[in-house]
Design goal:
Elements: H1 4-12, H2 17-29, H3 60-74, H4 81-88, H5 92-95, H6 102-128, H7 132-140, H8 146-163, H9 167-190, H10 195-214, H11 221-236
């Protein structure tokens, strides 16, 4: 691919061949350029060297997003301050403007995940429609939402793997699971099911969504959609029908 500076050279080069030869002859007659000392850096009025332009400081969210990416790609053991600083192109000192230590960063990673994948998601589902059946259908469709669903599933899998060996992550996952199941149970309750039955149906629906998200290659696209519709019909039918 031709770079911008090459295009500029081509554009400015004389189109007239006579002018071109004349310019080349003139260039050959010129004496070689003198070797001069490098230009001095611009100075401030008080004589100090002008400072280099400063890049915008990183936000806490930039560190959290980078940490989440490393968690997904390499696992929790690789989420370290030096690794993230190198990836972001900053010094370790930049990290401590926003976080007390690595543990503080990890806590914020879990908090951000819960807000995005549970609290904000629940609000969006509730605001999309007041119809209970439509809300259940929206929840069942979550594993089928393209790249967003794939990315969310990878983050979820990485955090659940982390939770198997870390108490803080395990608590975050337990709270997220309880909140999600509680929301789905409320939807089933609004359809007339008892509290106990609503929670049981909510657990089954949630288990399906988590499993479908983590096993996207189990069946063709048509088979997966048929499975989703079957679960939808099954969980809305009263017992004994």
């Amino acid at each position: 691919m031709i770079e911008a500076w090459q295009l500029a050279c081509i554009r400015d080069f004389p189109r007239d061949h006579t002018a071109m030869h004349g310019m080349m002859a003139t260039m050959s007659e010129r004496p070689p350029p003198r070797t001069t000392a490098p230009a001095a850096r611009p100075r401030r009025r008080n004589g100090a060297a002008a400072a280099e332009p400063l890049r915008a400081p990183l936000t806490p969210e930039a560190w959290i997003d980078a940490a989440t990416g490393v968690l997904v790609d390499e696992g929790i053991d690789h989420v370290r301050v030096d690794v993230l600083a190198g990836q972001l192109g900053v010094t370790r000192g930049s990290f401590y403007w926003h976080f007390r230590d690595r543990e503080d960063l990890l806590r914020r990673v879990l908090q951000a995940w819960r807000e995005r994948a549970t609290e904000q998601l629940t609000v969006r589902l509730e605001q999309a429609t007041a119809d209970a059946v439509a809300q259940l259908r929206d929840v069942l469709s979550l594993p089928f939402r393209g790249r967003a669903a794939t990315r969310a599933a990878r983050i979820e899998l990485a955090i659940r793997a982390w939770a198997r060996r870390d108490a803080m992550a395990r608590q975050a996952v337990d709270e997220a699971d309880a909140s999600r199941i509680g929301y789905i149970a409320q939807v089933f309750s609004s359809l007339g099911f008892s509290i106990a039955e609503a929670r049981a149906r909510a657990f089954l629906l949630y288990a399906y969504v988590v499993g479908e998200s983590q096993m996207p290659t189990q069946g063709s696209a048509t088979q997966r959609q048929e499975r989703r519709r079957f679960v939808e019909r099954l969980l809305q039918q009263p017992l004994g029908t």
